[in-house]
Amino acid sequence: MSKAKYVTGLRSVEQLLSRRAAEILKIYAEYQTANPRLEEVIAQANARGIEIQPANRARLHQISGENRHQGVVAEIRRSQTMDEGALRTLVEEKLTRDKPLLLLVLDGIQDPHNLGACLRTADAAGVDAVVVPRHGAAGLGPTVSKVAAGAAESIPFAAVSNTGKTLTWINEYGISIIGTSDAGDKSLYDCDLGGSVALVMGREHSGLRKNIAGRCDELVSLPMHGAVASLNVSVATGICLYEVVRQRSEAIRG
Fold first, then answer.
1. How far apart are CA 123 and CA 102, in angstroms?
2. 76, 103, 126 - which closes a domain
3. What is the pLDDT along the chain (254 residues), one digit of tens a residue?
4. Residues pairing with 227 in the sheet
5. 129, 17: one domain
6. Structurally, how many domains does the chain consist of?
7. What is the CATH classification number for the domain harbouring 99?
8. Dist CA 227 CA 246 (whole Å)
9. Residue 67 CB neighbours (<10 A)
């Protein structure tokens, strides 16, 4: 089985070229393009000695599985996914900094569009790593990469075999485990998020699994004042992450 992976879309490929060009095996690009951004991608790839394979839109769709590929697909050498050992090393290294650690744990998100949106917001909010289950959840792929708009190529992404056990050892490092649930006993806005935090978001429709909720130090909810009972998981993730950002910014201002 080939170990090649594909990254789709202009922003994602631009990020690869600027940060991790050595991992790119080949770029498939729409020929006779009039898009100046795509022309610049091709020029940068040529300057780095990366093979350019001309392709029509049907071929790009076939490679990536995406209709909205923006005329470019990069074939990369390996997956960006970390294993649990690499995640532990990252946690230990990050905890030596002066600033608190922020992890985003996604408990089984299955829609790649939601995962991509979560990665994009996580990158913007300064998340140190995103953690997902290895099985029963969306992984990195062309759709995720496209929606994430470059974040999938920059943010550390770990797939673990047992989310509950991972949360246990994360907690042993003094990192607070904060789960989100409509049954949470306090509002997000009443929760102290100033220290090192692992924010745990549940899957679409069903929320946190019972065994995962039981590993959390606190369960928090978002105030809902309208007729809608819940929010899309990527929207809720954005709200929660930026509450962490807000609290930490206020702490710095003093």
1. 11
2. 76
3. 345 678 888 988 998 888 778 888 899 999 878 899 999 999 999 999 999 999 998 999 888 877 778 899 998 875 568 889 999 999 999 999 888 999 999 998 999 999 999 999 999 999 999 999 998 888 887 788 878 877 877 899 999 999 999 999 999 999 999 999 988 889 999 999 999 999 999 988 888 999 999 999 999 999 888 888 788 999 999 999 999 999 999 877 76
4. none
5. no
6. 2
7. 3.40.1280.10
8. 27
9. 8
CATH of the domain at 63: 3.30.1330.30
At what angle are helices 163-172 and 84-94 packed, to 10 degrees? Answer: 20
Give the 3-state DSSP-derived string for 145-179, with helices as H, strands as E and coil as C: HHHHCCHHHCCCEEEECCHHHHHHHHHHCCCEEEE
Query: What residue numbers bound the domain in which 38 lies?
Result: 5-76
Do residues 38 and 154 both lie within one domain? no
Q: Is the pTM of this model over 0.85?
A: no
On whether both 114 and 178 belong to a single domain, the answer is yes
Q: Which of 49, 76, 103 is the last residue of a domain?
A: 76
Please report, to the nearest 10 degrees, the dihedral formed by the alpha carbons of residues 10, 11, 12, 13 taken in order: 50
Phi, psi of 41 (to 5 degrees): -60, -45
Strand partners, 187: 221
- Shared domain for 122 and 222, answered yes or no, is yes
CA distance 3 to 208: 32
